[in-house]
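Tutorial handout. Part one gives the primary structure; part two gives the three-dimensional structure as tokens.
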Amino acid sequence: MKRRTINTVLVVGLGSIGKRHIGIINSIFPKINIVLLRHKRCDKEESESLSISQCVSTLEEAIGTNPQAAIIANPATKHVEIAKVLATHGIDTMVEKPISTNSKDAQELVEICEKHNVILMVAYNLRFLPSLIYFKQCIQSNLIGQVYSARSEIGQYLPSWRPESDYRHGVSANKSLGGGVLLELSHEIDYLRWVFGSIIWVKSHTSKQSDLEIDVDDSASIILGFKGGKNKELVVSLNMDFIRHDVTRKCYAIGEKGTLFWNGITGEVKLFLDTDKHWMELFQSSPERDYTYTEEIKSFFKSVEFGVFSFISGMDGVETVLAVEAIEKSSLTNSKIFL
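Part two.
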């Protein structure tokens, strides 16, 4: 891959995550011009408030501004159609999670990017969280020996996610925009794959349990099978929801020597060893909210500038969507689905 200097970056979409990316780029890369593509043009006042150099309403106009990199932050159902066009014009792209709402389109995008020698990164920003990085390192260093099982939970009441906006109109609440608990919280599937390896099979139940005004599932109970050590499977339980009021993101890894615990809200990693019989705090880090997004953009821009493969590849995105599809099929058929 060739090295290139980023003079102009295209941001597609002006939802909460699009605004966040624009703010971060302005903060850490103030000399880079930002072009915004949205369904309607910005007026002068809005462009100035966003500190963008140009606002366009068609993809043709966006490509005409000659961006070296792009960040796609519109609804998931629209990701691939835009990313494919950008790839054919040689524009390196970071796509917000999930890469697509179906694996077929996602795989086609990966192939087009490979054909045109274009960098494709999927924005699973949890991988840049210091506490999760430390948790993974502890697993890999065999701190608790062979991992026998793991338990992961993620949950937050949907209306409290973005209290400044009506949850009923957001991506998360609408099937047509790629919402639902599995796609919106697919961070958990990605990080479990990152920490424990490839998923072999799934068994699940997904449903809408609450009275929230949404047309998607708000709860999922999932069992994931991974290839474990010593010819044994590693079985991981994953519970995801939009309905719990106590914000939760955590994972327990249960091993032959003890248990390792990660709390994604507090940034803690704790250890319980069979020899000590009590919990020990190994690590604690609570970076400000934009930290992982900032590191994510830095990583993507570094990949573009130095012509190196991205930290979170297009195939990572494909594998996560394949797992989501298997989970949906398992719930629908009440059966164990192999990937």
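Part three, for discussion. The mean pLDDT is 95. The first helix runs from residue 16 to 28.
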